[in-house]
Amino acid sequence: MFALFAWQPAGKLIWADNLLSPVKNEAFGIGAKIEDNSSSDTRDRVIREVAPPSHSALDYVVCEIDDDPEQVNAFGIYHPADLAITLHNLKEQGAKRVFLSTHLHWPAHEPEENSTLATAMRGFESVVVTAPLRRTLSSEPLPPAFMLASIPASEVVGGSEFFPIVNSLSIPPCIDFPQNTFAGFNVLESEKPSESLPMLARWNDRIVFSSVLLGLMQNSKITPDQLLVQAGEYIRIGNSGNIIPIDLFGHFHPDLSFAAKSPPRTITSALSAEASIIGATQRNAILTATGNRTSKFEAIGDPYFKLSQLAYTPRVSGAETLSRLPSWLECILTADIAILAAWLLAYGHMRRNTAFLISLIAIWLIFLTLYHILHYWSPVSVYTLTLLAGWALSAILAKPARRALT
User: So where does this one cross the membrane (predicted)?
Assistant: First the structure.
């Protein structure tokens, strides 16, 4: 029976253990308790409570690329070298994470010019960029920055067969992105426009994400492999971030009456080195194009609003740890139950079955107490199967005895 402990973590009996669990991972209603995602070898379970959306302003500095009326830029209104200078200025002011919401498409420029922006991007903890995706007759390989920001389709709980399908970029960036860069999409050109917002799409056997979702991921300081997707239910931003409800097609239906608060700080790209922003505390920055001439380079309209809209979703709060019983104690309990089952073999038919039933109920009551009051857990399915095996064995052994009496 001890071999059941090796079988149980593989998920074969998880359904039985979930019947007693104080958490319900399939629910994300306000006040529900959900469990952290963790490696299968951990013995502790961390439980968090789902909290209502918070309407607090996201702590960003929004850097607007205007038409440069003061003619500060060295190369024009929208050039990779000028953007590189802007990123350098933001880094000097303390920004550690940047969300670039513009098209990074300069096919007419020399590679050396485009590489200046890539060099500036390397100085940040992480950078989120965006590009439109579409579905065409011929599939292209998934670009490295999109690959870095994707997860295997096999990791989607509930399957990804209803998600939008894409296989190419329509406005590909002209930059070799550094390894700290996560690429997402701003629009799925093959999809019909709607009030709902696509959060993900399937590119061959990978799931790629909306760049706004990646921006929220970046704000939570997690990586794509910490995203949990359950089709038709939610996208969970790590263990302590937002829980974004989605439909079967991977769309988020925002509250159309939502009104975002103003960003804590707004500056212009051309004046990003000015002393007026010395002392800024924001560690997250958004680069957006808002000028009459530069707005044509904008890939995401009002990215701060869209981030705030996505952040106005339930999130988890607090943390409660359930510790697993020591291995030696689990083995002793299993042995005790096996001995109990053997002892009950000597009882008569009616008395034996009644004793097995009472023992089964007692096991479940004991572990309910462990879960909800003492904050301990152990795979109850192992003990249940040990007792049921003894019960079944007693029934099998009793048949020859009854036949002998008749």
Answer: 325-347, 354-374, 380-398
